[in-house]
Fold P-type Ca(2+) transporter.
Amino acid sequence: MKENWILDIDEISSNLKTDVNNGLSTEEAKKRLEKYGPNNLSEKKKRTVLSMLLDQFKDYMVIILIIASIVSLFLGEITDAVIILFIILLNAFLGMIQENNAEKSLESLKKLSAPVSRVLRDGKVIEIESQYLVPGDVVFLEAGNFVPADGRIIESANLKIDESALTGESIASEKIAGKLSDKNLNIGDRINMVYMGTIVTYGRGLFVVTETGMDTEMGKIAKMLDNEDKVRTPLQIKLEQLGKYLGTGALIICAIIFIIGVMEKRPVFDMFMTSVSLAVAAIPEGLPAIVTITLALGVQKMIKRNAIIRKLPAVETLGSANVICSDKTGTLTQNKMTVVKVYTDFKELDLNDQYDNKADFLLECSTLCTDAFIDDKGKSFGDPTEVAIVSVFEKNLSKKSDLENKYPRVAEIPFDSDRKMMTTIHKAHDNNYKVITKGAFDNVIERCKYILKDGKIENLTDDDKSKIKLENEKMGNNALRVLAISYKNTDDIPERLSSDDVEKDLIFIGLLGMIDPPREEVKDSVKICKMAGIKPVMITGDHKITAMAIAKELGILNKGDMAVTGRELEAMTDDELYKKVKDISVYARVSPEHKMRIVKAWQRNNAVVAMTGDGVNDAPALKQADIGAAMGITGTDVAKDSADMVLTDDNFATIVAAIEEGRTIYENIKKSIHYLLSCNIGEILVLLIATLAGMPMPLKPIHILWVNLVTDSLPALALGVEPADKDIMTKKPRPKNENIFADGLMFRIPIEGIMIGLVSFIAFLFGLRENLTNARTMAFAVLTFSQLSQAMNARSNKSIFKVGLLKNKYMVLALAVSIFLQLVVILTPLNAIFDIKNINIYDWDIIVLLSLSPIIIMEIVKALFFKTK
Ligand code: ATP
């Protein structure tokens, strides 16, 4: 290990062969990437396609069937054995493709939320994926970032880093750029170094990368840890259990069929093959893969609607969400701020009309107190509130850089959403500094002792304060965001800057009012929420009056709803909040810490809460919420990392869209389950009835396996991508932990299964009038086709004509392929291999009628018993 902390920056740069002012060149970075490899903690080995294929054969029943067919190969049943093996291979192959697709789409999801870093390359600041960082890169850090690699700090502006992931120390440590003298320091004491995976909680900084990937301190730990296991959703876990029960049930019935068959003196080996084939067909082994694919495809659809799911279980939870707590700025509003009003010297100036030079001093001070900037091409960087200030300044006065050259910044206390203020200190003359503080009105005015009247500094009286307060309220009522601006002159700056020492005895200059128009699409989304039984709640750091004005405009704050401030919230006990929370639609002037209480109070009321957030301090609430939604554009790495979902457009409407997708995905998974289980019941039943009735077996093992192949995958997958029901957002949210067999499935599955079994058996009886081959052909055909009818039935509790016969084009395709395959087997010479024969037109009529009867019957049942709009 190199003791980089005892070196000065020149030594480090020459060791790393880099230039801290310009960073590496793109070419050099490329070479180093080849040499050092990507900046990743090596992940668990991915499953290869071959291992996925082999996994398909892990199922006991499949292994038994393979052994059985090899035995029958030796006993001379060559054709049957070969076909069985072929079908099993085909099935395994399909299973592998499904799993591979599911895994790939989950993989690409991970890539979408890959972390990025701001680095200096070729003298320019660019953003790159953190995995491409190399030693020697110069990287920017700001509050909310994860440190992307290990390195030595070159610049620190109040940089504080939470290193608990490495050191266990929960208090963030202050970082400096100077060199240290002690060689033997623990990680926690190396205060001029930063380490991968730790969190910047405050301030800004610049560091040069010394180690990447597995060479980092985190990498050393990662070597010792086993990486995360696959995450499964609650539904997947429940289905796994259900699958076990159903599998056992199917096995028992197969065993019964076998025992009765043997007692009836049927050939033991035939009975064995039949029962094992039936078990393979009837055990819903494809279910987990279908569910994963449906989830993965649904998640892909969500991406198109700007929601990236980071944790798969969120997809299901979304369907139950009944409260959305949303930030205001940028999520409900456009975050396109424009300064429209300036209030100084007790006069309100409307900048929409024309510029007035009385605003000069206020704009100069507020511009100096910003981190935002606008480049030569007019592109803006930084917080929109600050961009608005810089742009009004540059439009009417001069370049921000000229102003900064005149008053260089020497220190700062950054903005944070608890203090709701920001202070910068600038050199004015030799030993004279100008302190500028801007921030939320209430917080700034509290710290002002003087006021600037007509260019003179005077005491700030109560009378002055009430006048300014009235103006603040007026601006708020017009939905303006208000910032108060103040300053003071000083001769010395304390070595350690603290808010209490610096942000006091300030001179009030005036107010800035800026508009941030609501997002148009949010109005519709709020309406949808109300129809869908979801309560939208606004949580904002902004002033109560501003917040209420916007909430009213959006339809969030209605008659009888309450708006409370952070202070009022603090005065409430948890029990009071628990009782009132349902009536509160707006929380204003809150700090991120309050969000946690709000989530918990809702959860005590049994609600499923979605909560948005962007800052470091939002992370705990994002974790606590049932669905934490982080902002994709303005969100910090930490917020994104704690969230279940990332909104790539920071938009409230996206949450509502994701809920709609979440509901649809859940419904579709239910449809696949409905379909597969009812079909399996049908398959078991045909054979059970025949066995009990002492009749010949209606289906041979190859038939059973073929039916399983043709009917199981495609229609079940197509059900997984059914388009959203147009009523989906008019229903109340699905209760948490609702049984998957709710909504009539408890009845529909067995009844429809019995129907499939019966029609197939009736077909068999019809066919028996001629001979066994004819009967088997008919049973084989009807069992397949009636299951395909069942796929149509399972699409909805509504009439399929209302749903739209051809609306799901994947279903149309799936049915067409399945029908085609079945016809090929019956009508072509292949029928000889399957031991069936082509049948006459009269029998075909019966096949069609019997196969369609499940639809006809269910249409009548739906019309009579299922009350749907
Ligand atoms: P939300 O996104 O939760 O709706 P917000 O963006 O309105 O919240 P914050 O960013 O916490 O909330 O801002 C709270 C208040 O702090 C604002 O109303 C404003 O008065 C003040 N403020 C915001 N940005 C700055 C800034 N860059 N400098 C100084 N004060 C600011």
